[in-house]
Amino acid sequence: VDPLDDRCKIERIPRGGYVTGFPEIPLTPETALLCDENINIRLGKNTETVCPNDPTCKKCARNYNETKRLLEHFHQGDNERRDRLQKWFPIPKGKESRDIIVCSVNFGQLYLFLNWACSCWKNQVFDVRLYTWIIPTDTKTYNALVALGFNAEPLDWMSNGTKIRLSSKYTGSANSGPHAQINSIAAFASNFAVQMGFYTLLMDVDMVFLHNPFPWLHRSADRRDVLGMYSPRWDNYGFMNSG
Fold first, then answer.
1. Which pLDDT tens digit goes with each residue over 96-133?
2. Whose C-alpha in 16, 28, 31, 83 is 20 to 30 A from the C-alpha of 195?
3. Mean pLDDT over residues 31-36, rounded?
4. What is the rounded CA–CA span in Å between residue 137 and residue 168?
5. Are 92 and 127 in contact (CB under 8 A)?
6. Cβ neighbours, 10 Å, residue 131
7. How would DSSP label each residue in 98-132?
8. What is the pLDDT at residue 196?
9. How many angstroms separate the Cα of 146 from the Cα of each of 36, 41, 135, 152, 153?
10. Residue 230: pLDDT band by 50, 70, 90 thresholds?
């Protein structure tokens, strides 16, 4: 039985709740209502995610203006970036696309990224340098990654008038300080890779691989555009971990 068979029409749950099934047209921040607790009942009364004044979340989102400015500057280098990715990750002859991994990291998180790379080497998963597009956010991290042979995004877009300084430290706090912006940068890059047609795995750097995940992901992605790790939180902050 295909688990999607009962999800192919729009159904509004009475008195609020999820809108299930596939939307007839692409959703926008104005129509998705991600911060409307009448639509997304899992939000509950969490004041950090419920935004009564603006259900698009734009007015209540932390660091929204800084993130928007980061995105604008990131896209200024799209033409050069597209050329780099085509060179770094050529699509094999006869194939419509290929797998890549996208992540972003600062110097404080670099040891976590290298631990993941070592896990792939130790478990003979694959050479991560052939699959990974990594976006560093400081010079020390960029230099270290390039020296190890990784495909690291140059830092020129960050120095081109963004006026946003991202700390190179990491205290272990998720979605706060520089980590929140680093997550946003990884999301920018993932969207760019998807728009180029790559099969894209967005990943946090505090991971280890025991096996190659791509065969399972391809089998599970049948009739699906997005797969996410189910990871509900005790504080109703969300039910999917984007990393």
1. 899 999 999 989 889 999 999 999 999 999 999 999 99
2. 31
3. 69
4. 8
5. no
6. 20
7. -EEEEEEE-GGGHHHHHHHHHHHHHTT---GGGTE
8. 94
9. 43, 45, 11, 6, 9
10. confident
